[in-house]
Design a protein that fits this description.
This protein is an all-alpha fold. The chain has one domain: Rhodopsin 7-helix transmembrane proteins (Rhopdopsin 7-helix transmembrane proteins, Up-down Bundle). The chain is about 80% helix and about 0% strand. Helix 2 runs antiparallel to helix 3, helix 2 runs parallel beside helix 4 and helix 2 runs antiparallel to helix 5.
């Protein structure tokens, strides 16, 4: 839903030269895209943590792995993200906006000093969140590999090794999707925010802007790869697909 909303507003932003269209996109479209991106990042981190706990405690169900706890974590995540997004939208809409624009009506054109400080704080917080999840994913994958190697050395013919190998492949899929979609964006985005005011060469600024937009495209690609992640990690999801396929063949 958020991706569709962002896509519609983003197309309108580039297709129109209207200042109001640009303001609407910067007020609602851009925050919605951030909401979609960082909810995906956090939930991918939750998936990795859940898979790791299943490997460490294969015969136990941790308190955080229960359906009730999972539901609470999901609700809390959405509530926190929505509060941040709506607070930013409220401040953005109520603040005085600049009447001029530059760099293709970039959203920075509408920032006053208050919005600019809030925006920088959110960018730093977002980058910190991304970095924490990225390090966690790599750490979980490495610990998974170590667990598999240890099991193969001590009990090479144990049937549980096949399950560990499958878990390693699943974690690899998660790490690869995460790195392809989100690492390029964050490697460009934070430097872009701080370096852009220092760029007086229009060509350099335009190149940086195009590079940032290409990384946004990769980040949006995550919405297309989410079904792959669900297919790899969820037996219930695969069972539902097989059931639908069976019904269609009847």
């Amino acid at each position: 839903m958020f991706v569709c909303l962002c896509l519609i507003l983003r197309i309108a932003k580039y297709a129109s030269t209207s200042m109001e269209i640009q303001r609407i996109y910067c007020s609602f479209g851009a925050p919605a895209s951030y909401l979609n991106m960082y909810s995906s990042i956090l939930f991918m981190g939750y998936i990795a943590a859940n898979r790791y706990m299943r490997i460490v405690r294969p015969l136990e169900t941790h308190m955080l792995q229960t359906v009730r706890s999972t539901r609470y974590i999901c609700i809390m995540t959405w509530v926190i993200l929505l509060v941040i997004v709506f607070a930013y939208i409220a401040v953005f809409v109520s603040a005085d906006k600049q009447t001029s624009a530059h760099n293709g009506f970039d959203c920075d054109s509408f920032h006053n000093n208050l919005i600019r400080q809030i925006y920088l704080a959110l960018q730093i917080t977002s980058f910190s969140t991304f970095s924490f999840v990225l390090v966690s994913l790599i750490l979980f994958y490495w610990l998974n590999v170590q667990k598999l190697r240890q099991a193969q050395r001590t009990m090479p013919d144990h049937p549980g090794n096949a399950k560990l190998s499958k878990s390693k492949r699943n974690m690899r899929v998660l790490v690869v999707v995460f790195c392809v979609c989100f690492v390029p964006y964050h490697l460009v985005r934070l430097p872009y925010v701080f370096i852009k005011p220092l760029l007086h060469d229009c060509t350099a600024a335009q190149v940086f802007y195009i590079l940032k937009e290409l990384t946004v495209l990769l980040a949006v690609l995550n919405a297309c790869l989410d079904p792959l992640i669900y297919f790899v990690f969820s037996k219930t999801f695969r069972a539902q697909l097989n059931l639908q396929r069976f019904r269609q063949s009847e």
